[in-house]
Write a structure and sequence with these properties.
Blueprint lengths: L8 H11 L6 H4 E6 L2 H9 L14 H11 L20 H8 L4 E5 L11 H10 L3 E5 L11 H4 L3 E5 L10 E6 H6 L10 E4 L4 E3 L13 H17 L1 H19 L6 E3 L8 E5 L5 H9 L6 E3 L4 H7 L4 E5 L6 H18 L1
Helix pairs in contact: 1-9, 10-13
Length: about 350
């Protein structure tokens, strides 16, 4: 029996660049940093920026950062969420106005609530023209859709291992080398230094200066295998499959009187969020669970957006490559049965 060498963080870094279609430019201009999760990656980027525009459509993390802004009021600006109707489309005129006074733009690629597919390449181009650094949160897209960092042309992009069929506790930050080299480390420990003295220290180069201490080697090996698995299936095929199931679900849900479906009618990814006039989302999800149908109910880490839409919670059906059209039909059948109890 022959044993193959296990890929460590360095091998995974190269694997991530390939997964994000980052060759050839990424080999010299970009590096990947491995930390615990996407939130830690965003913290790494946001911390040294003195006046960022935190703009993540449909995600509560923006609100969490606004709360931190209150603590760092002399360094941060705060803005409001701006969307257009239940389809969650961005107002580009509003965006251009905000970019004129911003230093950093952070946004999601795919919304986990509206499941809007944001035109990140166009948005990043507008930001770049305004001299604004861009951060793309690809946590929702890296495992569900093609992600081409050269086409997007962002400064930073991040995603989590557990949302790409990998282990928890590991995430990836893909960033422009010149920006990472200019950023200070935010944790201290082994590997992130070149020389240590009593009065001064010399930090390592990126990505090492951000990877203090013993790395999550097991997580790196697991994430490497997960990326291989997804690429073998094909994320283009996954995205088309997700879209087909979501479209079928929306068409069947539209048969229900009074239902309110969120997100765009076309071009959405594999999530459908909705509310019924006569049943709370939490009750609906609980009763569907008893019939073997798993729905997510609540604010989906997204209270500011739901407040903007005037709802307390939504029910959400999520589809992936292992789901089938028969399961979509079963979901609709169970929903009709549950609704009869409340009518």
């Amino acid at each position: 029996m022959s044993l193959k060498p296990l890929p460590g963080p360095t091998g995974l870094g190269a694997r991530v660049i390939g997964h994000l279609k980052g060759w050839p430019a990424a080999g010299l201009l970009f590096v990947t940093v491995l930390l615990c999760n996407a939130l830690q990656m965003l913290s790494l980027v946001f911390w040294p920026v003195s006046r960022p525009l935190v703009r993540r459509i449909n995600r509560e993390i923006a609100n969490a950062w606004w709360s931190l802004c209150d603590l760092w009021a002399e360094h941060w600006w705060k803005i409001d969420i701006e969307i257009t109707g239940d389809d969650g489309q961005l107002d580009f005129q509003w965006l251009d106005e905000q970019l004129a006074r911003a230093r950093l733009l952070s946004l999601t690629h795919l919304s986990n609530t509206m499941r809007t597919v944001n035109p990140v390449a166009e948005i990043c181009a507008r930001a770049r023209a305004a001299g604004v650094v861009t951060v793309v949160d690809a946590a929702q897209s890296a495992g569900h859709a093609p992600v081409d960092v050269q086409a997007i042309d962002c400064d930073f992009l991040t995603f989590s291992g557990h949302k790409t069929c990998g282990p928890t506790g590991i995430g990836v930050l893909y960033g422009r080398r010149e920006l990472l080299e200019a950023m200070p480390p935010y944790q201290g420990g082994g590997e992130m230094i070149l020389k240590v003295g009593y009065r001064e220290s010399t930090f390592n180069v990126a990505p090492h200066k951000f990877e203090a201490g013993t790395p999550n080697v097991a997580g790196a090996v697991g994430l490497h295998a997960a990326l291989d698995y997804l690429d073998a299936i094909g994320r283009e095929a996954i995205f088309e499959h997700d879209q087909r199931l979501a479209k079928r679900a929306c068409e069947r849900l539209a048969e229900i009187d009074g239902i309110r479906i969120f997100g765009p009618a076309e071009g959405r990814s594999g999530v459908v969020s909705f509310v019924l006039p006569d049943a709370h989302a939490l009750d609906l999800a609980t009763m569907a669970d008893q019939k073997g149908v798993a729905l997510r109910a609540g604010h989906h880490c997204n209270q500011p957006l739901l407040a903007k839409l005037g709802v307390a919670a939504t029910a959400r059906a999520s589809f992936y490559f292992y789901n089938t059209e028969a399961e979509v039909d079963r979901f609709i059948e169970v929903l009709h049965g549950v609704r009869k109890i409340f009518v």
